[in-house]
Amino acid sequence: MEFKNPQEELERFRSRLAFAGGFVLFCFSLLFIRFVWLQVVQHDYYQTRAEDNRISLVPIVPNRGLIVDRKGEVLARNYSAYTLEITPSRAGNLDKTIDGLAEVIEIEAKDRRRFKKLMDESKSFETLPIRTRLSDAEVAKFIAHRYRFPGVEIKARLFRQYPGGAFASHILGYIGRITDADLGEIEKVEQDANYRGTEHFGKTGLEQHYEFELHGISGHEQVEVDAGGRAVRTLSRSAPVAGNQLTLTVDAELQRIAELAFGDRKGSLVAIEPSTGGILAMVSVPNYDPNLFVDGIDTQSWRELNESPQKPMVNRALNGAYPPGSTFKPFMALAALELGKRRPEQAIADPGFFNFGGHHFRDDKKGGHGMVDMYKSIVHSCDTYYYVLANDMGIDNIAAFMGQLGLGSRTGIDIKGESKGVLPSQQWKKERFKKPEQQKWYAGETISIGIGQGYNAYTPIQLAQATATIANNGIMFRPHLVKYVTDTRSGEKRPIEPEPLRDLKLKPENIEVIRNAMIGVNKEGTGARAFAKAEYVAAGKTGTAQVFSYKGAEHKTESMAAHLRDHALYIAFAPADKPTIALAVLVENGGFGAQAAAPIARQVLDYYLLGKKPKAPAPADEDAVEGDAQ
Amino acid sequence: MNPGFGLSTLRSWWQKLVAPLDGPLMTITALLVLLAFGVMTSASPERINPQLLNMAVALAVMRVVAQVPPQRLMHLAVPIYLLGILLLIAVALFGDVSKGARRWLNLGFMRIQPSELMKIAMPLLLAWFFQKREAMPRMRDYAIAAIMLLLPVGLIARQPDLGTAILVLAAGFYVIFFAGLSWKIMIGMAVAAIAAAPLAWNLLHDYQRHRILTLIDPEKDPLGKGFHIIQSTIAIGSGGFFGKGWRSGTQAQLEFIPERHTDFIFAVFSEEFGLLGNLVLLVLYALLIGRGLMIAANAATLFSRLLAGAVTMIFFTYAFVNMGMVSGILPVVGVPLPLVSYGGTALVTLFLGIGILMSIHGNRMLVQK
User: How many helices (H) and strands (E) does chain A have?
Assistant: First the structure.
């Protein structure tokens, strides 16, 4: 056994102490090297990281541009209001939270449904409104109870408001929350940074088409934030630039009168300034209230709007394709003149039908109109004249001319999603049908094309554009709703230049024939009752488009189900010698054009040309004698 | 009545009060404490008052212990150790669970953390053990020491409290090391430890593994496990050479640094005082440790030497592990920055250690060879 040697033991202990001391110095040196690495070598990198931590760029959403009519009446504006918002990811049990909130602030079933729909459409870290437009009292009430509701907050937000409610809704469109598809659009034009704080996006109408004009330029605020993301103080701020203002070609008062003229009927009216293509009024009724969409619409209201047989969400002016009926006849007559197929005085004897291959194409008037020249064919809307004419011209000649007038192709109006309609031709039929026996065009099919029936289907705006083109002596303009855009920053007004699409090079004498005949319509023909005692000369043409085809038998409109009744149409321009307005009216299931559509046109023209305001919606003239038929 | 009398009475009281205290140790400690309150004012001013209270208690403990001769401390070694083991077993059986770990024992009137006691009890016991061997310690003695060490370490690691387990293990190991365990065996054990590392990996809790993985690549989980380390390294790095200035650290003031008044207070200090501040801190700790080792070198008995050496090295372990983890070169284990972090328990333990050093110094060898 080795006993202790105190001296030796002490020496060994001290050497161990020395080793420990060395180890301590070594370890501290390691730490020091680490500190030099972090604080000297990598300092810039960590400095940047610390700044990134500290400073957050908060976008400030700009005020959306206003939309005003040609006289400055505001159609779309913004207002600021408090909303109660929930961040689902921070709120815990949502149903419980909402139930709790409902004890403090009134929350309707509608609000819950809307919130649920928003939830399905967004990510859980987004804040979503459960209630909008809180009163000051409600705000105070919530703040007193705020501690009970984590993830729920009051926010002041700008809302889009359409003061006219449903008025002109198909022109204005609406905005809604940004979707992934919208983000794609935004990326395409490299506006991502500008939309960082934006929550809404134009979905339809002008709001959609002019989204990037209306949006404006986002400002931003450099704020110092703490680890919890709360803003501690503002470091710098750049103000947002409000969106540009749209001034429309639309005359709001005219639009209002036109909408009211329909009463509770369905239909559309498009009025165009022939010399510019500027749209004076564009009606599609029934309307819908775009305000419903701004805070997010609830599922039930959405379904009601979409599934309503009235189809309020369909913009009939651009997306309703209707057979033009007899309003097609002036165009047919003009085509015949231009192609040299008819001279104005050339007359046919109308026995009341046209026999083609053993089939009788009937005229509306039993026994026929007698001798019918071009003037009479339009004024009294003689079908037989056009059966024969169509047969003489052939489908492709008709299609070529009508195509020049813009029928069957998009007009290029500044609203997205316009329909093309159907301009029938041999080519069209080949493309439309799959089976070879269906693809062939039969000569007999051309006959009813002549009176605006058959495969013919055009949108009201196409009819209005074609009418305006004749009114403007063959020079066609692109229809547009916006007159000029006012740049918020410079105050500069950028006019939307009238854009002549093409010059049809129509012979003035031919136009004169058609103009005269259309004046005759309102003087002594099918439009005479509607335009009795008019203080101006209007050129027009009535039309009735068959919805339901009867074989052989006569049909009486009164005994038919409403949705099977004929569509009433009317086209016009006035004053006839120097037109300032051209229009097309369509009343769905309205019956005869003279009965339902022409009185609406009369009210619109009376206001536009004379400033006369109607006292009641245009009455349906039940006694009107309809000369035109199928 | 006589102001001269009062003053001299006061002076004699003061002299009595400070007599057992070591001047250099007291000075270094005072500087560290001063620095601690400076950082605390920046990191968490509302904790100044409670920490002052903790400080008062800790200083009192130090003063009392400084007066207790080492011989009497030696008598306490075995009872304290046994008490500690019993309490640790009690914790394992009846302890309160908080944050997934069973560390606290509720005595009804207070909650105690027995593992803290072991930080001092462990070196005390082992120093006593080696003092009692009359012969040169042999393999068998080291083995017994190892068992006495590993028993509490195992119990603490199971709670689980890796930080404390490491500190207790280190404290015990220092005694064994200073007692003269041969280098051959230590190197052999180190090799064996490396070989056993994969096995140990399997024994670790998930959260402990995460901490080690997070150390290797904190950016992998920047908002979760890596958040602490990322934010503290950003704080340190952005501090630069001179620091951002007292109470001007954005990482600290905007609360990006987690636990900035306790385990991560070094990040606050480093952000605001920079590399220069870090150097000052390292020098102060080095001086403290140097003074402790000096006291150990001159201690009168083997017991005193071993205890002084181990207690001194505990300070080093605290400081190195804490600064290492906050600056991202060691895994995150719950070890405070000695004398600076907020918290009463660690403060009392550390001042108890300083008291022990002072007591040993007061009873040093009077004749230098």
Answer: 24, 23
